[in-house]
Design a protein that fits this description.
Blueprint: E1 8-13, E2 31-32, E3 35-36, H1 37-46, E4 52-58, H2 63-74, E5 79-82, H3 87-95, E6 104-109, H4 117-130, E7 133-139, E8 144-147, E9 153-157, E10 163-165, E11 169-172, H5 173-182, H6 190-196, E12 201-205, H7 216-229, E13 232-251, E14 254-262, H8 270-283, H9 288-291, H10 304-317, E15 321-330, H11 340-351, E16 355-360, H12 366-369, E17 373-383
Parallel strand pairs: 1-4, 1-6, 4-5, 7-12, 15-16
Antiparallel strand pairs: 2-3, 6-11, 7-10, 8-9, 13-14, 13-17, 15-17
Helix pairs in contact: 1-2, 5-6, 8-10
Length: 384
């Protein structure tokens, strides 16, 4: 993700009961293609170009589950708070824990699970450009009638002046906090509170994928959209590093005390680098040399998790999710068997997908057989 100097927080509202969905549990925790709506929303946050801190607002009895799901997606602990008895009060609970140093706050309904990362970035960009709040919206396509209590048509509403608004909605932090402090009644829309507080709010182009999952029909529509996009893509990657006894060994995301290290611009983690190449290859995003570059001083001595995290962000930002990764290590040392499970767990947590690790030797043949270096070969499966 890009560090632009602007600090962004995203309050993901996942505290709704989901009664109309009829799934027997809060809708943010209903699964869609094997992932909860909350996870889908957090994947979009994680794929943002702007670095963003997610804050999840969940039902009080599901805080632990929300925390585990959030960490599984982001690879790090996420702030999770209990919601209130209305959407507005739930958002207020999330705002109460926003870091005072945050510049822009987004509020997003987890029920809009297919909203893409590009929409999140677009509203942040618009706030930075304009200095006030923005909401994404789509033109109203249907003819709209104003009717009375008895169903009689009173007039046809000019739909050219109407917009169907979505989330994420984005605001300068101080304006949003002020609006909530001044709020006198419950609103279902953050932009309404901000406008009532006297601040300008603009509508910017929304995205058809950001529809709200409210009914079983909506959930089926989302399932159909995801099923239609699920096309597997496979990429391979390979990396080789020479043994350098003067350095520490980092391999498969782990430190190996007492083992001779591997030479390289970064930490020489051939496993991590091969995985990055496989992921970028599958997504059609180039290779590790082109993306990171050995001439870039930012990556001098960087550990493998830096490259893996950024590769995952780029892959997910391109509309893919990682299915699984398999890696074969070729070399005499270190002996991977004793720490294979630890390495697989470490790599899987970074990528948010299963990683399997194997090892072999070349029976004394070639440079790996002579102990001069280590090679890793990786295969990655992506789903779109």
């Amino acid at each position: 993700m890009e560090n632009t100097g602007t600090r962004v927080a995203v309050v993901v509202v996942a505290a709704g009961s989901g009664t109309r969905l009829g799934a027997g549990r809060p809708k943010a925790f209903v699964t869609l293609q094997g992932r909860t709506l909350l996870e889908h929303s957090l994947h979009a946050v994680r794929g943002m170009r702007h670095a963003a801190d997610p804050i999840v607002v969940a039902p009080a009895d599901l805080l632990q589950e929300a925390s585990e799901l959030s960490e599984r997606v982001t690879g790090r602990p996420v702030t999770v708070v209990a919601g209130g008895d209305s959407r507005q009060r739930s958002v207020a609970e999330g705002l109460a824990v926003v870091d005072p140093r945050i510049d822009v706050v987004l509020v997003h309904d987890a029920a809009r699970a297919l909203a893409p990362a590009s929409l999140f970035d677009a509203v942040v960009d618009a706030v930075l450009e304009r200095g006030y709040g923005v909401v994404p919206g789509l033109p109203v396509a249907d003819t709209v009638k104003r009717v009375g209590p008895d169903g009689a048509v009173h007039e046809t509403v000019d739909r050219s002046a109407l917009s169907a608004v979505q989330t994420p909605q984005a605001f300068p932090r101080e304006q949003l906090l002020t609006a909530y402090a001044l709020a006198k009644s419950d609103e279902t829309d953050d932009a309404g509170l901000v406008a009532a507080a006297g601040f300008r709010v603009d509508v910017v182009p929304g995205d058809a994928r950001a529809f709200k999952v409210t009914t079983p029909w909506d959930l089926q529509r989302a399932e159909d959209l995801l099923a239609g996009r699920t096309v597997p893509r496979i990429g391979t990657g390979s990396d080789t590093h020479a043994v350098d006894p003067g350095t520490e060994l980092w391999l498969a995301g782990l430190h190996w005390p007492g083992e001779p290290g591997l030479a390289g611009h970064s930490d020489g983690d051939a496993v991590a680098h091969a995985i990055v190449d496989a992921l970028l290859s599958a997504a059609g995003l180039g290779d590790i040399g082109g993306v990171f570059g050995t001439g870039d001083p930012r990556f001098s001595g960087a550990h493998g998790d830096v490259f893996l995290t950024e590769a995952r962000r780029r892959v997910e930002g391109a509309g893919f999710r990682i299915g699984n990764v398999a890696v074969q290590v070729i070399g005499n040392r270190p002996k991977l068997s004793a720490r294979r499970a630890e390495a697989e767990e470490r790599l899987s947590s970074i990528l948010g997908a299963p990683v399997s690790l194997g090892a072999t030797t070349t029976d004394g043949l070639g440079f790996t057989g002579r102990g001069e270096g280590v090679t890793a070969q990786a295969t990655a499966l992506l789903l779109s």
